[in-house]
UniProtKB/TrEMBL annotation:
Origin: domain of life: Bacteria
SMART domains (alphabetical): AAA
Occurrences of domain ABC transporter (ranges): 5-230
Keyword entries, A-Z: ATP-binding, Nucleotide-binding, Transport
InterPro entries: AAA+_ATPase, ABC_transporter-like_ATP-bd, ABC_transporter-like_CS, P-loop_NTPase
Gene3D superfamilies on file: P-loop containing nucleotide triphosphate hydrolases
Family, similarity comment: Belongs to the ABC transporter superfamily.
GO molecular function annotation: ATP binding; ATP hydrolysis activity
Annotated protein name in UniProt: ATP-binding cassette domain-containing protein
Length: 298
């Protein structure tokens, strides 16, 4: 698969805040690549650098394996924040303005194609101000798709949307991905990322903690829910046993990670040797959220 994006030691500081440190990521054609991280981990700074809005202090990046920045920019559709459309103009007229600013050809065909793709064709003549937040976001994605770019870059695309709006954006992302486009999404909504992404990069305090396929991320360790009548002793024991890692409190039970090979009987025995008798021990189905917490808390 061809490289769509490669970064080499990208770094950026703001005064005494190291927003990004030696970031090396590679995105390949056709991937839906999720950039994950807690607040302030450097996601927006990364996208800003990649889109040429923020200048890095150090490091390089390369789109499409070449250095033709102006040409490449036309091949990247981006949605960094909800754009300002004209409230009293309809969807078509708003997109005509975008097409005119970017000197596009075949404007009517392009607009029909993207409005159908984001399922707003039926509302093409409605004024922007009458749109729901979800429809506004879909129009913004239509605008990012107008030039038929190779890559779509989305920063927190489901922010502020209700469950239906979120589901619509999810199916839109999957639909766009099915046309072979590469999509890069920054988000902290792990459930959403898990439903759409093929690859994930996890950032923490400006550093890349992990870059892998979604499957690789989800099968690293085994997660168990454990409990004991003496909770404090249980927590102390978890802290003392190096191979066990505390993940979080799960409505009373404690979620821990153990080595992938460990059987439940072995785990029970290790606790018993520490004088802890478990009142429950069960396998926890892995999802991106628990794995994410496991990775960023280590
Ligand atoms: N213009 C700026 N001036 C000073 N500090 C900044 C600036 N922009 C970002 N930072 C700091 O850089 C770090 C990374 O911020 P960034 O916005 O890239 O993170 P993020 O992962 O996108 O966070 P969020 O999810 O909250 O948007 C944070 O500590 C932030 O406070």
């Amino acid at each position: 698969m061809a490289d769509i994006l490669k970064t080499n030691s990208l770094s950026k500081s703001y005064k005494n805040v190291q927003a990004l440190q030696d970031l090396n990521i590679t995105v390949k054609k056709g991937q839906v690549y999720g950039l994950l991280g807690p607040n302030g981990s450097g996601k927006t700074t990364t996208l800003g650098i990649l889109l040429g809005v923020i200048k890095p202090d150090n490091g390089k990046f390369n789109w499409f394996g070449n250095n033709q920045r102006d040409e490449n920019r036309k091949n990247i559709g981006a949605l960094l924040e909800t754009p300002n459309f004209y409230p009293y103009l309809n969807a078509v007229d708003n997109l005509k303005i975008v097409a005119e600013i970017k000197s596009m050809d075949n404007v009517s065909d392009r607009i029909e194609t993207v409005l159908r793709r984001v399922d707003l064709w039926k509302r093409k003549s409605a004024k922007f101000k009458t749109f729901s937040l979800g429809m506004k976001q879909r129009l913004a994605i239509a605008s990012a798709l107008l030039a038929d770019p190779e890559v779509l870059v989305l920063d927190e695309p489901t922010n502020g949307l209700d469950p239906q709006g979120i589901a619509e954006i999810r199916s839109l992302i999957l639909d766009v991905a099915s046309t072979g486009k590469t999509i890069i999404i920054a988000s902290h909504i792990l459930d959403e990322i898990e439903k759409v992404c093929t690859h994930v990069a996890i950032l923490k305090s400006g550093k890349l903690i992990k870059e892998a396929t979604l499957e690789e991320i989800l099968i690293q360790d085994k997660l168990l829910c454990v409990n004991s009548d003496n909770r404090e002793e249980l927590l102390n024991a978890i802290e003392e046993i190096p191979e066990f890692k505390y993940i979080k409190d799960l409505s009373g039970e404690i979620l821990i990670s153990v080595g992938e090979e460990r059987t439940n009987a072995e785990v029970n025995k290790i606790f018993a040797e520490k004088g802890i008798y478990l009142s429950s021990l069960s396998l926890h189905r892995k999802n991106l959220e628990s794995t994410f917490l496991e990775i960023v808390s280590s």
